[in-house]
Amino acid sequence: MQAPGAICRIDSQVTDEGGDFYMVGTRRSPEVTLKDAIATCEPHLALVAGSDDVSYSGVGFHESGGVDGDWSGRIVLCPGITDGEELRLAAARSGAAAIVLREAAELRASSTPAVLRLSSHGDWAEIAAALRAIADPAGQSYVAAAPVGDLFAAANALAARAGGAVGFVDPTGRVLGYSTLSDQPLDPERKRITLSLREDRDPSEDVQQIAVVNASRALIFPPEGESFGRVARAVRGGGELLGTVWVVLPSEAAGPRIAELLDTVEPVLAQHFRRARNEAEKIDDRRRDVMAGLLDPSTAAVTSARQGYPPRVDIVVERFAIDFATAPDESRSRALRRLLNVVLSSASTWFAHSRTSIVDDGVTSVVAESDAARIRAHAEFVASADPSVRAGLGGAATTPAGIARSAREAELALGYLLTAPADGAVARFDDIRDRVALAQVGTFLADLPLAVADHAERLSDFDLRHATELTLTTFEYLQAGQSIAAASAKLHLHQNTVRNRLTRVREELGIDLDDPDTRLWLWLRLATRERVSEGSRPRALHAQDGRP
């Protein structure tokens, strides 16, 4: 006869009592204690009295009529109870392992049963589900094998029990953790997703993801072509979608067993997902704090020393952002998080010292490197992964106090690229300093009251009304030092065409191109006007070469 509390692995069909019962092997379930429960449910569950070195076997809710029945070895949840001491005495008489209260003040120091406090943000139903899952044999082995919040250890523990590779995905499609057991194969699609740490498709557009999120239980997806079959389940906590778990089917027959396993451990998975998210948020906060310290001249020296930056190596700031005008249709937060992961992982391998964080609407990386070509190569590597990524590189800082200047330069270079996509995806501030300066001058000039209805605006308005290219012709003429021949060559036009256009500028618009002050102002306004995709030349909307 099977020993109480043992789990049996059955290879042949099990019949009713009295039939043939072939047992391949048994193993006793590890005892789950209040310490396991508290560790899994932190920070929502805490010990306030008694010992946490007590095992428990089940969970129940206290009813208004009192503690009825046999509560031996159980955790009793007591929502709405204010007199914890009286309830504790009743629970002790019934053999309860612990009681859980929202308020647990003024309790005697007696040792049994233990008293646990549920935080003000804890949900009774969610905690009950988690405690029940931990007490389940599947949950017991799962808790024993994976520290709460370590999603890679959790994936390995689940994969060992399920018999197939496991992946955890957050609601945005980012891979949070995956199993690494060598004897569990992956199809080419899952290998690619695992390596890139993100799903190929947006979860809001993926048919299987949508089905899993809308289901209340695990779903089984059969194999398709080269893709292995999978079992998946949504993971929720407090009504919030925390992510999804996916298990590769080792065989079609294993589907129902794995689906039942995922349904059983889902409350425990919710605690893993929530703890991992909380830890990730703390890491993000620490990264932001370090970055703020590096970018502040008053704290840069201390922060860089604490972070291990060498004292006599150039420090350069890389600034990355996504040009959403050319980016795929996806959420900004997901795209920014994806960019952060790429920069983080690559900078740590390209450079001996680097710190990376999300800053405002982009990603900033502070790297210690004297080779400017290597820094540019890294930025181009990041940009090559996504055509919508732009990167601005600041100048080298020879002292920590110069990091802030490098950051400003990187931001200026990035801002220039976001308005001038024809200039490429990566730019060093030192290489485009003059163009950035002209762009800033243009912004300043455009804001002056003197710029309203000036010659530049009159030229542009005329081109828009008449579909001409007088603005472009005038700019190239001034750019060429008033040379008709040079301007016509640049525009690929006959010299007489250029002369005729300039005559219209003089006669129809009354612009005196022989006046040096007029030429200087007009050139400044046209040279610094907002850039378009063809480059820095000002063009009137819809104008075509060859028009008058």
Strand segment tally: 17
Main pleated sheet? 5 strands, mixed
Helix content: 40-55%
Kindly provide the radius of gyration, computed on alpha-carbon positions and rounded to a whole number of angstroms.
34 Å
Give the strand order of the largest sheet, numbering strands 1, 2, ... along the chain.
Answer: 3-7-6-5-4
Low-confidence stretches: 1-29, 530-548
Q: Kindly name the structural category.
A: alpha+beta
Strand content is 15-25%
Q: What do the pLDDT scores average to?
A: 82
Annotation field: number of helices: 18
**What's the shape?**
elongated
Straight-line N-to-C gap: 101 Å
Summarize the structure.
This protein has 18 helices and 17 strands. The longest helix is centred in the middle third of the chain and has 41 residues, at 255-295. By secondary structure, it is of the alpha+beta class.
Explain the overall architecture.
By secondary structure, the chain is of the alpha+beta class. The protein has 18 helices and 17 strands. The strands form 4 sheets. A 5-stranded mixed sheet has the order 3-7-6-5-4, with helices on both faces. A 5-stranded antiparallel sheet has the order 9-8-12-11-10, with helices on both faces. It starts with 5 loop residues before the first strand and ends in a 21-residue tail after the last helix.
